[in-house]
Amino acid sequence: MSDGIVTLNVGKRGINDNLITEINTLLEKKGVVRVKMLKNFRHDTSGAGRRELAEKIAEKVDGKLVDLRGFVLTFKRC
Prior knowledge:
Number of helices: 3
Shape: globular
CATH architecture: 2-Layer Sandwich
Number of strands: 4
Oligomer: single chain
Largest sheet: 4 strands, mixed
Strand order of the largest sheet: 1-2-4-3
């Protein structure tokens, strides 16, 4: 049941340059990328809300946040 969308998991290493580079690379290749925030990442974010985390990632990638469901973000190439 593959829909062709790549899913990246954000864990204890959090949002770093490697993650942003990987998202941008996948957006260039596939056009759409899902980013799933795992529990160990959510506990390490010092109470930041999911909307704030989504906006923080959206500022850094070359794409647009098109969907936010729970802790799964979907980005699309602009």
